């Protein structure tokens, strides 16, 4: 098992990564918190596969209840949030109760937001079960979606611990591994050139990842994120770099309808646009076509869905949280490991987006 420490202005917490560590690590962390009761918020698919195992670990020593959320991005919603708060109130959860988020990023964000707001904030622990959650379980961004935009209603609320049991990842469908791998690539591109080059040389298929490779990419990804979050917990500056690929990615996800395209696939398309644009703005010397081919080989979509107009996407991007004063903020790369934010006027970015789409389809 490997341990990392996440340090933020509002406190530090451990991340443990290993196989079959859930019971021992969770019991250890929960003992420190001494909760009055526990509410497990679990993804439906994860609950049916591993729910009993988690409940057995907790229910002997603590009053424990489970709330199951149907799987899928469309459930990172007001309705799920409301249902969790209603159940918490009916069960009589108090300020010393603990929430366990058991699932991928949807559950981590939703359960974390419920924990951030219930009685103005109760503790929670992240128990991630997807590759993508190496990103979502760390750093304290918690939120639900609104039809008008991704993660628009949220908070910063750090978990007390992150326990990453690799045993759970063995049942993850390959398209979900791919979604998580987009955030792994992002972490390499924005924060660690050696890691990025290791990824490009070692990973061309995702259905035969061994534990060693998986653990390496999870730990390196978290290390990049941890360094950024340590410097800027609440995104007043450099944390925006973690949004590389997201300005367009989030616009695609919201325009298509949540759950139609995975978060990672949206981010992959967004990163390709950002890399192409970085070539125009910062003369970034990365081989765009080679990267695009690597993405294709991995199974990522490499173009914006045809049905989405540049106008509709630009309108979405203007509502992005990084946007201000009628301009759109993009995260671009000067080189690998050197991201920078750049602001664009609406018409300027629309014309660049259209050029990129035309060039991509020739
Ligand atoms: N808070 C953050 O910093 C942050 C960072 C990145 C992404 N996110 C958010 O994370 C979300 C995406 O997370 P995700 O990709 O984990 O999606 P997800 O939580 O929807 O999980 C993906 C799918 O995998 C299934 N699943 C989960 N674990 C499984 C397992 N072990 N075995 C079999 N099936 C399993 C789920 O049922 C679901 O269908 C998005 O909402 C995104 O906005 C947040
Ligand atoms: O932790 C961050 O900061 C990130 O931007 C990580 C992203 O991968 C993640 O998708 C995050 O939820 C995006 O946040 P948002 O504020 O752009 O909604
Ligand atoms: Zn993301």
Task: Compose a concise summary of this entry.
The protein has 362 residues and is of the alpha/beta class.
3D structure, described in words:
- The protein has 362 residues and is α/β, with parallel strands linked by helices.
- It has two domains: 1-167, Rossmann fold (3-Layer(aba) Sandwich), CATH 3.40.50.1970; 172-358, Dehydroquinate synthase-like, alpha domain (Up-down Bundle).
- It is 48% helix and 20% strand.
- It contains 13 helices and eleven strands.
- The chain has helices at residues 22-33, 44-59, 78-91, 105-117, 133-136, 174-191, 193-202, 211-231, 246-256, 263-282, 288-298, 310-318, 346-360, and strands at 2-8, 11-18, 38-43, 64-69, 98-103, 124-128, 141-146, 149-156, 161-165, 327-335, 338-345.
- The strands form three sheets. A seven-stranded mixed β-sheet has the order 1-2-9-6-5-3-4, with helices on both faces.
- Strand 10 and strand 11 (338-345) form a beta hairpin.
- The longest helix has 21 residues, at 211-231.
- The radius of gyration is 20 Å and the shape is globular.
- The model has no long low-confidence stretch (mean pLDDT 97).
- Its cofactor is Co(2+); Zn(2+); NAD(+).
- Its EC number is 4.2.3.4.
- The chain crosses the membrane at residues 98-119.
- It comes from Metabacillus idriensis.
Which descriptors would you attach to this protein?
362 residues, alpha/beta, Rossmann fold, Dehydroquinate synthase-like, alpha domain, 2 domains, seven-stranded mixed β-sheet, binds nicotinamide-adenine-dinucleotide, binds ligand LNCXM5UN, binds zinc ion
